[in-house]
Amino acid sequence: MDFELTSDQQMLQDGLQRLLGERYDFEHRKAQLFGTPGWSRDMWSRYAEMGLLGLPFAEADGGLGGGPADIMIVSEAFGRALTLEPYISTVLLAGGCLRLAGWPAQRAALVPRIADGSVLLAFAHVERQARYDLADVRTTAQSLHGGADWTLNGAKSFVLHGDTADKLVVSARVSGRERERSGLALFLVDSNTPGISRRVYVMQDGTRAADITFSNVQVSNDTLLGRAGHALPVIERVVDCTIAALCAEAVGAMTRAHELTVEYLKVRKQFGTTIGSFQALQHRAVDMLVMIEQARSLSMYATMMAAEDDSKARTCAVSAAKAYVGRVGKLVGEQAIQLHGGIGVTEECAVGHYYRRLTMIDVLFGDSGHHLGVVAAAQARAFDAQVTAVTAAELRRDFVNELVRAGDGL
Amino acid sequence: MDLRFTDAELAFREQVQQFFRTAVPPDIHRKCVLGQRLSKPELQGWTRILFEKGWATPAWAPEWGGTGWSPVQQYIFKEELHMAPAPEPLSFNVNMIGPVLIAFGTDEQKRRFLPSIARLDYWFCQGFSEPGAGSDLASLRTSARLEGDHYVVNGQKLWTSTAHHADWCFLLVRTDPEAKKQQGITYLLMDMKSPGVTVRPIVTIDGHHETNEMFLENVRIPVANRVGEENKGWDYAKYLLGHERSGIARVGISKMRVRRAKELAARIDAGGRPLSEDRGFRERVALLEIELKALEITQMRLISAATVPGKPDPKSSILKMKGSELQQAAAQLLLETAGYEAMEFDRDFLRGAAEASGPNDWALTIAPNHYWARHVSIVGGSNEIQRNILAKTVLGL
Fold first, then answer.
1. What is the pLDDT of residues A228-244, one digit of tens each?
2. What's the pTM value of the predicted model, to 2 decimals?
3. For residues A209-229, average pLDDT
4. Looking at this predicted complex, what is its ipTM?
């Protein structure tokens, strides 16, 4: 086991914290939040200069060859600063699909442009009826002209940063019924292709999104990412990696909300003394700390498992982390507001903004209740195998026959 | 960053597992599986097996019988011991008085006591708490007056667990009533056979006699049995706080309980199908296992962090708090799993003195162990005291 960061990772962390510390204070963020496009193009080009935008892509494609631990570092720093830029949609979601499913020519054409910040992407996957089921896709892609072209029809919702994206990665069904695991495909299309219309709106945390409708959108076969019909494992993997990053972002947000709260406890006076001298409030602040440290541990676990090829083990680990982090993110945010008192429920106070982002993180790609169900189901499957193994281990011992008898007598 | 165990650590785990598979006497292993308490000779016998293997006191300095294992190895050993399950060596000996003597004892005291402590030839109990000194331990009032080459001790101790088995007691006494309360305390080793020592049993809510109250009336303790300097006893007692960090969260015990609950749930019928197929049950299990996974990693992060000996990371209070909560939650899960079956009370079976009279020996200790688990969030600095420590040292409140 090794919990140390490499020197490169340490530099990344320090450099990013310095950049965000200097240029992403709360007032700066608020100015972006209420403006257009709702985030900072200046920061976006600075991220590009730092190498953040090309981070997870292979060096051969024009990226930096970073791994999940690097993404964790970046996401945690973004969580602390509550950044608004379309990093998740461009680099992790749509970029993840390109990275995992794209053909060499597609990667060679696009990765350098992602890395230098000149192209923005979004992942048009979620549909209103699907809730958190990644396989539930009604949008269709029909093959035309003997497979030379495709026609896309359908409606996507909650496309994160779908308002500003130059290109969209769209999931569509080429065969099979709704919710069937096979039959999905991914297309990389220009967002101004005829037949695409967008309704853009603001999400609860201030980030931007769009509902995107596809009516008889004709695209050529070279927009297909990977092979038609086999996209779901790619989507699942991209979403797992993104969930790991969201967990790290939540840890960053919780940590900062907790720091702000502890600072406030030290200066706010009531009854002639700082409220941080009250034991009831001290203990709440400690309970927040414990939850954050536990969440940090699971964020690291999800990060480590995000690169796992075994999809069952990977999803189970990532869901375990999301189930916990989603829940305690809300709890920490709620306590941060409670300990701030009245000022905590105002828009001018930062903790409320952290709470809104943590609420959004819980919902994205499945809330804690959903992921607890995923873990429970996965463990039940693993458990049948485990019981057999445990029983076999016990049977090596003579006395256990008695135990088995006792069990049989139930 | 790599959260996986190294190949060497995995090989070590295999070696430890192999040892526990073969070395735990079958009757003792059976008692551990069934959650029964062990007798004094049983724990002594098991401790000697560990001693012969060289594993009785892993965390001690190597010249006094420690193994020189890394913190991760010590954690693996503890977890495998709990998961086997095998009896835990007497904590008073291994985790408390042993390390204190190694750090502060005279050479004479080390030679005289340490080998017997490691082999459990000497059974130590802890004479710290008093009726008026619980969480506020430093307010203790048991007095020691120097008369020639002896201290004469008078007072009352409380929660002296296993005093009825003990040969020796490590004792905190007040030697300077004028000094500030932490500064007038002295650390003594008391022979339990000394005249004036009276031990009275306290039966706890599990129905078992584990702990006691102890009355000390003009008990004469040779000055040679003082640890370190007079009036410095508080420093020696404090040295232990967070000393044994690799096992403080006792994740292995909780994991073993959850595993047991799953095994039982697969055999227990609930509405025509195994309880293990119930969605609510599975989710409770999943929630607990997720928190245990988190705690396991939190523990590794803390024990892997660079530390100064004797200066524990105050964040280890997190391990105590969360570890005790999860032990209790796992005991609760077992109770819910067993249902009615856990409601029969059989004191003699619990203390390992008799076979079960009924058919459900697998369930008889579940409720008592659940009740007994309430003490883990109180003992050794209650969870509220741990929160005070964290608020002060980590948050600066």
1. 999 999 999 999 999 99
2. 0.93
3. 97
4. 0.93
Which letter, b or e, does each residue of A195-220 get, where b requires 16 or more Cβ atoms within 10 Å of its Cβ?
A: ebebebeebebbbbbbbbbbeebebe
**If you write DSSP's letter for every residue of A14-52 in order, what string do you get?**
HHHHHHHHHH--HHHHHHHHTSSSSS-HHHHHHHHHHT-
Instruction: Report the candidate in A156, A216, A147, A227 with the shortest Cα–Cα distance to residue A187.
Output: A227
Whether residue B167 lies within 8 A of chain A, CB to CB, comes out as no
DSSP line for B363-380: GTTHHHHHHHGGGGGTTT
Write out residues in chain B with pLDDT < 70, as ranges. 241-247, 306-312
* CATH superfamily assigned to domain A123-229: Butyryl-CoA Dehydrogenase, subunit A, domain 2 (2.40.110.10)
Residue A98 confidence (pLDDT): 98
Residue spans of the domains in chain A: they are: 7-118, 123-229, 233-387
Chain A residues closer than 8 Å to B30 by CB: 399, 402-403
Please give the sequence-ordered ranges of beta strands (E in DSSP) within B223-340, or none if there are none. Answer: 226-227, 269-270, 273-274
3-state secondary structure of A300: helix
Q: Which CATH class is domain A7-118?
A: mainly alpha
CATH of A233-387 among 3.40.640.10, 1.20.140.10, 2.170.120.20, 3.30.230.10: 1.20.140.10
CB-based contacts of A278, cutoff 8 Å, min separation 6: none
Burial class (CB in 10 A: 0-12, 13-18, 19+), B212: buried
Q: Which residues of B touch A9 (CB under 8 A)?
A: 1
Are A399 and B390 in contact (CB < 8 Å)?
A: no
Tell me whether residues B282 and A380 touch, CB distance under 8 A: yes
Residue A408: per-residue pLDDT:
30
Contacts of B359 in chain A (CB under 8 A): 406, 409
Of A258, A323, A308, give the one whose Cα is nearest residue A80: A258
d(CA A375, CA A325): 14
The catalytic residues of B are: 244
Which residues of A130-230 form beta strands (DSSP E)? 140-144, 149-160, 167-173, 184-190, 196-202, 208-220, 224-229
Q: Given CB atoms, is A224 within the 8 Å cutoff of chain B?
A: no
Contacts of A318 (CB under 8 A, 6+ apart): A240, A243, A244, A302, A305, A306
Domains of chain B: 7-89 (1.10.540.10), 124-236 (2.40.110.10), 251-393 (1.20.140.10)
